[in-house]
Write a structure and sequence with these properties.
The chain has 148 residues and is an alpha+beta fold. The chain has four helices and six strands. Strands 2-3-1-6 form a four-stranded antiparallel β-sheet, with helices on one face. Strands 4-5 form a two-stranded antiparallel sheet.
Length: 148
């Protein structure tokens, strides 16, 4: 692990000295943000949007009102915790047309709703009874276990 930290520090210092800017963008070293050039493709467009970053005070009616200006909203569902009944601050908006969902995504992604910025992507299609394949990071075995 010490070697990995040393490698990251060297890369950061190299990029800092090789550029003219005085700021260092460590985001590329510390996050697993997905971009279009990433090996993980973004979900294909669909009429169903995944909406994250909701305020806990947002209800289904206010979420539907926020998205209804982009087209016919068939269904809105906010996900709640089973034990506490509190909002998990994400939900789904299902449009009748895929074009309406695309325009809503492009217009509302990053915009604030009740004081919190929304993060919107096309929802993955859930197939009942099928296993969900989650991409794994490579070189995960390089880190020592915390349970020792």
């Amino acid at each position: 692990m010490k070697n990995n930290i040393t490698w990251i520090a060297r890369r950061a210092l190299t990029s800092l000295t090789s550029t003219n800017s005085s700021t260092l963008n460590l985001r590329s070293y510390c996050s697993s943000s997905l971009s279009s050039s990433s090996s993980f493709p973004s979900p294909p467009p669909s009429p169903k949007l995944f909406v994250a970053g909701l305020s806990s005070s947002v209800d289904e009616k206010s979420l539907k009102d926020a998205f209804s200006s982009f087209g016919d909203v068939e269904e809105v569902k906010i996900i709640y915790d089973k034990d506490t009944g509190r909002s998990r601050c994400f939900g789904f908006v299902h449009f009748s047309k895929e074009n309406d969902a695309e325009s809503a995504k492009s217009a509302m992604d990053g915009k604030a709703l009740m004081g919190r910025p929304l993060r919107i992507t096309f929802a993955l299609q859930r197939v009942r009874g099928q296993p969900i394949v989650v991409p794994r990071l490579t070189n995960v075995g390089d880190f020592p276990s915390r349970n020792k």
